[in-house]
Design brief:
Length: 472
């Protein structure tokens, strides 16, 4: 193991620079920030700053796509985007930053909002949404309140530690979040995870995969691959353990095949295992593993026995249950009763079921389509068409096709470096029922392999294309 190199990394000023970058990216909350936020919020209620035809909450992939496309459809449309962060950071492809793939630095994933604002000419409000009054049609933020005719919600996800760990108090949740960040929401979490990896000694990395609907289901598998790549490059001894509560996970066959071929036994899938506790100071997790007894029940299924175990880790990437962003609760929209709470939609459209003047795109939508950036980008275009048609007094319905749309979603995952190789899942979308549906499959490329160098190249091209669409 190259101790000198990693020791040097620990000692370098890079850590300090990273903290500063993280604070800029997310407006990381300090006590002073919190006080400032509370004061701003109190002032905000009194400060109504005008009304816009379309207000979009969230300058992420879905929201930016709606804003850009509305302006392409009608350059005079009065649009305001509200976003809490001052810069955009991409989650897609960010795992390759952990794997230290060529050209994949922090700068590859951060973009300036000034360019699209200037190019398309919409209004921008940097502030955190704190309340939505649907009756008055007013959105209150930390930097003032605004009125709307049409509201579009693309606020992404939040974490639900409370539902997954009901015995943990707020202090414990904060400590675990800080020490073992999920890194599913853009910003400092990714940077802390990267720093934890840079600082690690020989030992295991544990990734816990959430149950239920969560952002980018193949992300944990790709992350395991990229962390194993990093550990191999740095000659770090230890395993990458992917812990799942059930037996399955997204693109499982493709990942297991790639892991075995590329990494031998370095990446281990631990099924039927539910994390119950974390001691961040001792770096130990407690989990319950369901172990087969060899006996069968009346239906012929193996009887399982829960066994409580502990495991010492070097780095923990605890991905908790996901839920729709709190912005959805603020809007008081009807949501699904699962732990995520997807926004119920008004049929095969991006208008919500509860309020015809509120639209939703991105990870929060209640359609049966994958929560991905590619889907958010597709939905954003469709939503913009719907709103533009409505404002011209018409209607827009998704184009009826004799076959499902084959390019609804393609989600790539990098699985190896030197040479770069990736796998992909492809979803066809159809919209003949009550909701838009996606049907996915993971294609084999050549010689029975799910991965290929061509798919890795396609991943880089796709990322360049998506960021170009949003920011060029
Ligand atoms: C590690 C990882 C890898 C991924 N890889 C891929 C991939 O390869 N391909 C792919 O297609 N997808 C990928 N994804 C998924 C993709 O990032 C998401 O599906 C996509 O970003 C969803 O878009 P969105 O607009 O719903 O949310 P976001 O892009 O997260 O945007 C939400 C925005 O709302 C803002 N916001 C939230 N709350 C407030 C508030 N109260 N006030 C103001 N602003 C607010 C946030 O700051 C954010 O900018 C990946 C995700 C992760 C985590």
């Amino acid at each position: 193991m190259d101790m000198n190199r990693r020791d040097m990394l620990k000692m370098s000023v890079a850590g300090a620079a990273t903290v500063a970058a993280a604070a800029t990216l997310t407006g990381c909350a300090t006590k002073a920030d919190a006080a400032e936020t509370a004061t701003a919020a109190a002032g905000a209620a009194a400060k109504i700053m005008g009304k816009h035809k379309v207000v979009i909450i969230g300058g992420g992939i879905g929201g930016m796509t709606v804003a850009n496309n509305l302006k392409k459809l009608d350059k005079n449309m009065d649009i305001l985007v509200i976003e809490k962060n001052d810069t955009f950071m991409s989650c897609p492809v960010s795992n390759t930053y952990l794997g230290k793939l060529e050209g994949m630095t922090l700068g590859t994933f951060i973009f300036d909002y000034a360019q699209p604002i200037e190019k398309h000419g919409y209004n921008w409000l940097q502030g955190e949404v704190q309340a939505i009054d649907r009756k008055a049609k007013v959105v209150t933020t930390t930097n003032g309140a605004v009125g709307y005719d049409i509201l579009v919600l693309s606020p992404g996800i939040g974490y639900n530690y409370e539902a997954q760990f009901p015995t943990w108090d707020a202090k414990k949740i904060a400590a675990v979040k800080r020490a073992a960040p999920a890194a599913l929401i853009p910003g400092s979490e990714h940077i802390i995870l990267e720093r934890n990896l840079n600082n690690m000694e020989d030992g295991d990395v544990i990734i816990t995969v959430p149950k239920g609907k969560f952002r980018c289901p193949p992300a944990p598998g790709e992350r395991a691959s990229m962390i194993a790549t990093f550990m191999n490059k740095e000659e770090i001894e230890g395993k990458v353990i992917v812990m799942t509560e059930g037996t399955g996970f997204s693109k499982k066959a493709a990942f297991l095949q790639s892991w075995k071929d590329i990494y031998g036994d370095k990446i281990v899938h631990l099924p039927n295992s539910k994390i119950t506790d974390v001691d961040v100071s001792k770096k130990v997790i407690t989990y319950i593993e369901q172990i087969g007894t060899g006996k069968k029940d009346d239906l012929g299924d193996e009887i399982m026995k829960p066994v409580t175990k502990t495991h010492k880790y070097e780095v923990l990437n605890l991905m908790p249950l996901n839920k729709a962003s709190d912005v959805i609760t603020m809007a008081g929209l009807e949501v699904t009763k699962d732990t995520f709470g997807k926004v119920k939609m008004a049929g095969c459209t991006f208008a919500t079921k509860t309020d015809a003047d509120i639209y939703a795109v991105g990870d929060v939508v209640g359609h049966a389509i994958p929560p991905s950036g590619q889907t958010a980008n597709w939905a954003g275009r469709m939503c913009a068409q719907e709103i533009a048609a409505r404002l011209k007094g018409g209607t827009y319905t998704l184009p009826v096709k004799s076959k499902p749309d084959p390019a609804g979603n393609v989600c790539f995952s990098m699985v190896g470096d030197n040479p770069e190789q990736a796998v992909r899942v492809v979803h066809e979308f159809s919209w003949t029922g009550a909701v838009i549906k996606g049907k996915g499959h993971v294609p084999k490329e050549k010689n029975g392999l799910y991965r290929s160098k061509g798919t890795a190249k396609a991943l880089r091209d796709w990322y360049r294309g998506l960021m170009g669409d949003l920011f060029a």
